[in-house]
Design goal:
about 600 residues, Rossmann fold, two-stranded antiparallel ribbon, about 5% strand
Length: about 600
């Protein structure tokens, strides 16, 4: 006698194996009959790749569902609506129909699901629930379609999201629904065997539209709210489970609107593409997004078990981190500068918004207001355990506006908003310390004046100050942290550059080269005459010993240019370097405020 857990496991394994077999067959069939995606300028792949992988995903899901999963009205309706989307995508893959025609097909699928009463009770008003359900189904379907822009990305993210749903179903004891989701996961993982980088087959629109619609519909089978019965939390759980496609779609749509491009057009400006532009490999970029999806799924599971106020706080922290990440990625250039200028000329309103975003002051103020609120909330939770007590909650609510106003005023007065994030240093941390201290003092004095500080805890304000300082510092250091965690892009075909001088000047030059990949320079290491620096690493680049070995080092590393960073170099040593460079036909430049050629005369 099979236990429910064993049934789920066998259904997953059978689906996985069948998906592998069917994907292999579909790949051969697609290649034989010419259903192959050719490389395009606005697409990421660089070689002809088989299409129609969605056929294997669809057939696997339907066949294994018919064999293993108990039939219910809800599951049949969901699979029926998803099948409609599969057919619409298949027609598009073969005939290349118009976007509005695909949208009509999506509305037919939505009408099928809603017509059979599968509407999520997310709000008290039925009409709002229908509108939100329709928007959810269409939005997630197109989000997965847009996310299918790099090897293994859409299928992997969908599998992770489905896995998060499966955990929620298992916790709720919904065995039949868990079987369906497990079958779906197996179909996706089996397809990933051939779709992960380097991919030999793509899912096509028949796959992305089927996967997106089915994934969005499966949310309706789960008790998404858990203990968090607040509307915001209930809506946030499915959004967190499908966080990566939602974030990527929103991110790309906003930026394309800013640059005057159609959101429906293909492009190389997705989150995954920007991560690659920062220096990650395609696999690393996809795996990083997998990690974000897993984290979001974990947060979704936590939110289900939290009280509304606690879940709201956790979601707010996640959104803040996400916002800062989005601001950082938006600065990565993926379009040519002349295209950006033309877009700004043609779209004056978006050009104004873009220029405003460079100053970021409005964003910083809003961000700091959120940080102040979260820090104060965290301090209360740490000291009192929770805010469920009505008296504690009353103290928190009536004092929070005062803290926000006075602390923002302190930040402005001390000079927090005069800094540039990417250049945040230890000196700025001193400024943050002064600003937080002043804000806390003014807040305590104000509460003393208005409420005689009655029932307020001094420990809360000490804890709040510490948390706020770390939060404020982390937000300002975020860009520098990103630049340290993510490798910066170097031109693969650029000339090899050796930096002479492994000191502060050399490290500064390396940063400039990293920040300006259009200079076409590829640093291969440092060289320094100090024997104690030999063999050390600076940002992953080796320091070579310079005494008598310069010519050999240049030859072994195919160095085409030397940048002198140190100002204190003897005339004799400089002459020796010039002679070596002349014999080896190596360019020699001195890097000061700008890089200037060295006169060989």
């Amino acid at each position: 006698m099979f236990t429910p857990e064993m049934k789920v496991f066998f259904a997953f394994i059978f689906s996985l194996l069948l998906s592998i077999v069917l994907t292999y067959v579909v790949r051969r069939w697609a290649r034989r009959y010419g259903y192959v995606a050719a490389p395009k300028a606005n697409r990421w792949h660089k070689k002809p790749t088989a299409m129609m992988g969605g056929v294997a995903i669809f057939l696997t899901t339907v066949v294994v569902y018919a064999l293993f999963v108990p039939k219910t009205t809800e599951s049949l309706v969901i699979l029926g609506g998803s099948s409609i989307l599969f057919l619409v995508g298949l027609i598009d893959d073969i005939l290349h129909i118009k976007p509005y025609q695909k949208l009509i097909g999506q509305f037919i699928g939505v009408a099928t699901v809603i017509g059979f009463g599968l509407v999520q009770p997310w709000t008290p008003l039925e009409i709002f629930n229908i509108a939100i359900t329709a928007f959810w189904l269409v939005g997630i379907t197109n989000a997965i379609n847009l996310l299918d822009n790099m090897d293994g990305l859409a299928a992997g993210i969908a599998a992770i999201a489905a896995f998060s749903l499966a955990l929620g179903l298992a916790a709720s004891g919904q065995t039949n629904e868990l079987l369906l989701v497990s079958v779906f996961i197996g179909a996706l993982v089996g397809f990933l065997v051939f779709n992960f980088n380097p991919a030999s087959i793509f899912m096509g629109d028949c796959g992305s539209m089927f996967v997106g619609f089915l994934l969005a519909s499966l949310v309706f089978l789960t008790d998404v709210g858990g203990r968090s019965r607040g509307v915001f939390s209930v809506l946030a759980v499915p959004a967190l489970i499908l966080f990566v496609p939602i974030f990527d779609t929103t991110f790309v749509t906003v930026l394309r609107k800013i640059w005057g491009r159609k959101a429906s057009e293909g492009g190389r400006d997705h989150t995954s593409h920007r991560l690659v532009a920062l220096g990650l490999s395609e696999r690393s970029a996809v795996l990083m997004l997998y990690g974000f999806a897993l984290l979001a799924g974990l947060i979704a599971l936590l939110v289900r078990e939290m009280q509304p106020v606690e879940s709201l706080a956790l979601i707010s922290v996640f959104v803040l981190i996400l916002t800062i990440t989005g601001v950082y990625l938006s600065k990565v250039k993926v379009y040519k500068e002349q295209d950006e200028e033309l877009a700004l000329q043609n779209h004056a309103v978006f050009g104004f918004l873009l220029n405003l975003s460079h100053k970021r002051r409005v964003f910083e103020v809003v961000l700091d207001a959120a940080l102040i609120s979260l820090a104060y909330y965290a301090a209360y939770v740490l000291i009192f355990g929770s805010l469920e007590n009505p008296e504690t909650w009353s103290l928190f609510v009536k004092s929070l506006p005062i803290l926000i106003v006075l602390k923002l005023f302190s930040f402005l007065l001390v000079g927090v908003y005069r800094g540039v994030w990417r250049y945040t240093s230890v000196r700025d941390l001193v400024t943050f310390t002064k600003a937080v201290a002043l804000g806390s003092i003014l807040s305590v004095l104000a509460l003393l004046f208005f409420y005689r500080f009655q029932f307020f805890s001094r420990a809360v304000f000490v804890t709040d100050a510490l948390i706020l300082f770390f939060a404020l510092s982390a937000s300002r250091l975020a860009f520098r942290i990103f630049r340290q965690l993510l490798p910066m892009p170097f031109s693969v075909d650029g000339r090899n550059v050796l930096i002479y001088g492994a000191g502060d000047g050399g490290e500064m030059i390396l940063r400039e080269l990293k920040s300006n990949p259009d200079w076409n320079c590829k640093p291969v290491g440092f060289i320094d005459d100090d024997p104690f620096k030999k063999g050390k690493l600076i940002h992953g680049l080796r320091v070579f010993g310079g005494n008598g070995a310069l010519q050999t080092i240049c030859r072994e590393n195919d160095v085409r240019e030397i940048l002198i960073s140190c100002q204190k170099i003897s005339p004799g040593r400089l002459k020796e370097i010039k002679e070596i460079c002349q014999r080896a036909e190596i360019s020699l430049k001195r890097a000061q405020l700008k890089i200037e050629p060295v006169d060989f005369e």
